[in-house]
Amino acid sequence: MKTVEEIKAAIEAAVPGAGVEIVRNPSPSGQHSLRLKPSHAAAVARFLRDDAELAFDYLSNVTGVDWPDKEVAEKAKVTRTVTKTVDGVEQPVEETVEETRKRIEPGCLEVVYHLFSVALKHGPLTLRMRTVNRTEQVGLPSLTPIWRSAEFQEREIFDLFGIVFTGHPDLRRLLMWDEFKDHPMRRDYVEPDDFEYEPTAHDAVLARAQAHQATKGDGQ
Amino acid sequence: MNPSGFVQVKDRLEGWNRPPVIEPDGEGELLEVAMGPHHPSTHGVFRMDVALDGERVIRLKPVFGYLHRNHEKIAESVSYLASMPYTDRLDYMCSLTNNWAYALAVEKLTGQEVPERAEYLRVILGELTRVQNHASSIGFLIQEMGASGTPLMYAFREREKILDLFEALTGSRMMCNYMRFGGCRVDASVAWLDATRKVVAGLPGFVDEMDRLLSSNEILMARCQGVGILRPELAINAGVTGPMLRAAGVNYDVRKVDGYGIYNRFNFRVPLGDHSDVYDRFMIRMLEMRESIGIVAAALKEIPAGPVMDPKAKIRGFRPKPGEAYGRIEAPKGELGFYLISDGGPNPYRYRVRPPSLINLTILEDMCLGQNVADVVLIFGSVDIVLGEVDR
Predict the structure, then answer these.
(1) Taking the model in full, what pTM does it have?
(2) Which residues of chain A neighbour B348 with C-beta distances below 8 Å?
């Protein structure tokens, strides 16, 4: 199989402006990946599938990864002027201190695709895409029109991670029930106390009783 | 008529990998049937929402999740070793191949080596698992066709002999929890190897018996041939793997392609189908059993002495370096993969199972459209799924 550098060059020759980035994998598996721009993902995917030398006709695995907001502590050297008493005289002295600064690195949701070639029997090639953030802009283009095997797997990611795949022909929850609200595979997910809670007629009665008590308390 | 719950979709799929549109003939009304979740043919709890025009299937939507327990989330909250026994519960018919796939992915992540004897034991157990899985899946298929009992009991009789071997070696018939990162948990005794040789010597006779009983049976041929046809290019595009893919005539077996473990030392053939129908899937499983028996026999002959575990390997509480790995094997049901991301901690940061059973169901609707409702049960049976793996 071609190396990721060669595949990157081939993609950039075929799809202008694709802007593919190589993501290095330091583990012994040596499976480096390519990060795609969501705007060009469909064109790149179609090229990878249809190119005779690459022929990635088989999309094996699709999965999501949640990267929450992270607090990063950085050490920086800061030089500033301090007044110090040297030999009994107060004078300004330049001093270099190491300071820890904290900043919040914004999180994102990531989707990972593993491609193989049945025709040429090579692989895997790992593709990744990132959403802008984890809250509002969670849309990514669907690759289901290009590889049908993504159909259920993207539905599962939509269900468990909350990534919205635009262009997916049938984007519904796969494993959780339709009325379920949250996305359980996110790292900040908190289990509800009672999964089977449903508002009942009894709740309405209780709420009315509570409202009645409250008005009584006002002295009316 | 647009029955509630069905979404008119597929318009945006590229033309050729979209399911065909089957029009009702206009006479009478469409009948909506929920097959499952407790239909006896669904191998567990699985639902197919079917719209029928008389006997013909017009639409079919699989509904998942009845057995969902978020295996991946649980695995991310415990150490690497602690999810090994839980992988047994994915495809509970083939716990040893699940163990193997997970161990392989972790070994890729950490770069661990596996001793020779452990590799042989893995091959022996993996192929025995394949034999018992294929035997029982054929038995279930025939059972669903209406041949109640006999072939299934023949298959279970043989499966029980293999499960007895698993129990003698691992301590459990089905939840084996046997493989470890960098080897296997316990060594096999000489007596166990002898017992295995005896069972394996009897297996070709069993396959012959099943073959004589079923392969040229007139009713089986009438029910299975030409039913549930799947085009090979669609099978590849939809990520179908395992016997389903090879029944479509596509030569793709991860044992040959990746040559993981020590598979390139064994001489075995990859059976391929011509017609890609239910009958071909049945025959492929029959032929794969024969090849697997050959592999086990060869491995039992060649198995060397030595350790089954690298004594220096750290199993408990190890922290792989940050990175990721995707490892896959040819499980009896298709390509079983594990994708792991490590952030340097004792638990996997991301743990993903690529379930062959779920992905092989992607084209269930395509295969069933236009077929009779009685054949849906057969086509579904020929996919060979286990719900523990579909829903995870």
Answers:
(1) 0.85
(2) none
